[in-house]
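Re: beginner question about structure tokens

> Can someone show what the tokenized structure looks like for a real chain? I only ever see the sequence side.

Sure, here's an example I had lying around. Input first:
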Amino acid sequence: MPHRDHPINHCHDKLCDGILDSTRGFRSTFDPNILKFDSRLLFAFQAASPGSRSFDIRLIKIIAISVHQIAVILFILNEGLHKNDGVIEWAPPKSDKIWWAHCPNGPEPTMFFHHWYLSHDRYPNGVADMVGYWAESRILGGVVLFDRRQPIPESDVDQDAVSIHPDRENVTYRICRLTSEKRLQLLKFLTAEVPDHTPLPILPDEKNDYRINPEESPEETGIYRDIWDRSELREDAYDQRLRDVWNKLDYLTHSGKGNAADRALERRNRIFQGRFDGDP
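And the corresponding structure tokens:
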């Protein structure tokens, strides 16, 4: 949510005039052939039998990438009606120490962002990719991620699993694997000629019991779409795993919360040790 004093809270309570017609015009002329996909993904999708696990996982991946790319295209068109009005650049006064502690570099370059996908300096499309991740979260329910680990006997690796990383109020901030039920609902919606209802956005609840912490790097967890997508937790940033109070929204069990806190403490100790070792 924007800061309580942010001007967006007062200047934008309805769609801007003309924006709906502009959006319909974009849709009517949009050519899906301009979307770009990894050739290996397309070949594997074409080779898979409809309804197979291989087909399903690649269909979901193509849809997620499509949503992301369309948002990128719309952002790059730069047809927004709010230009040079100070809304995006607004920041609270320096006396708001809590805000500046969380945002030491000032406001993000766009208001359309997911809090864990901010690394526009390394994204192929820069700030536009921030908007792409935001669009995934708003439309699909979260940024769509996959299990990239190599299968190991008797492990929890599932290369056909789909995970989502939400970013909204009253929903866990942790990355959640889709349940079989939600995954089936999504696939039925995507493959139906005329869907009778939409399961979107898919929002995790207590049934999503396979979760990982975004504070832990993609290299550690093996859950990501592109290895560079999720932003790393700054060394000086607050680590939510260290909260004193158990929150069932994020952690279904006390032991899960305790284990996450232990990993956070290990990380903090590594940081302190690194600083100590670096002292002259």
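Each token stands for a local structural state, so reading them left to right follows the chain. The chain has two domains: 31-81+112-234, 239-280.
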